[in-house]
Design a protein that fits this description.
By secondary structure, the protein is of the alpha/beta class. The protein is built from seven helices and seven strands; from the N terminus they run ββαβααβααββαβα. A seven-stranded mixed sheet has the order 1-3-2-4-5-6-7, with helices on both faces. Helix 1 crosses helix 7.
């Protein structure tokens, strides 16, 4: 399932990946659209593809990032997309998938947002494209140490990193944290573009 919101042509685009349970594509689309549509950006919320063997979890599926670019190409066949201003956000398991495959994803997206998740990449080598990264994470998430390991990877590779820690927030608190920080993240995203593309 793919959903998107209209905007001006060519539109900047945020692609959003859901987590392993709850808060699916429709809910993610609604939340992000509230902050990005007023800025003239579109939102594409993707469901992990069951037809490709996904059983509801992006990071367990671990499919090729080319599937995501194919969904963008499908949208671009219907409306103009600003390919220099495309960003990727992941919630929970979607963020973990992004960390695991980050070097490939950095080739396509001008910035990454990791919300309530993140795991170190499968390959610890630095990618060629060092895109800016925004973390929104809570220190009471039992897997928080994985997000901090991913942060260290990005900092060690020379990425611009925005680390927004939600003190005493568990996973549910991380989700609620988007209410307070979503507008700031959207503003941050709007300033990010791939130069020379």
């Amino acid at each position: 399932m793919a959903s998107f919101t209209p905007g001006p042509d060519p539109a900047p685009l945020l692609v959003v990946l859901h987590g392993d349970s709850g808060h699916g594509p429709a809910e993610l689309l609604s939340r992000w659209d509230a902050w990005l549509a007023p800025k003239g950006a579109a939102v594409l919320a993707l469901a992990c593809p069951a037809e490709r063997g996904c059983k509801g979890s992006f990071w367990r599926w671990n499919g090729a990032p080319s599937w995501i670019t194919q969904q963008i190409d499908g949208l671009a066949s219907r409306r103009a997309i600003d390919r220099k201003r495309m960003w990727l956000a992941g919630w929970s398991g979607g963020a973990s998938y992004m960390g695991h495959r980050t070097q490939e994803l950095e080739r396509t997206f001008a910035a990454l947002v990791l919300h309530g998740g993140g795991i170190p990449p499968a390959d610890d080598a630095c990618g060629h494209d060092k895109r800016p990264v925004f973390f929104l994470v809570g220190d009471r998430n039992p897997l928080h140490h994985l997000a901090t390991s991913l942060e260290r990877h990005y900092r060690g590779c020379g990425h611009e990193v925005r680390w927004t820690l939600l003190p005493r927030a568990d996973h549910a608190g991380e989700w609620r944290g988007l209410d307070a920080h979503g507008a700031d993240i959207a503003t941050w995203l709007m300033s990010k573009r791939i130069e020379g593309a």
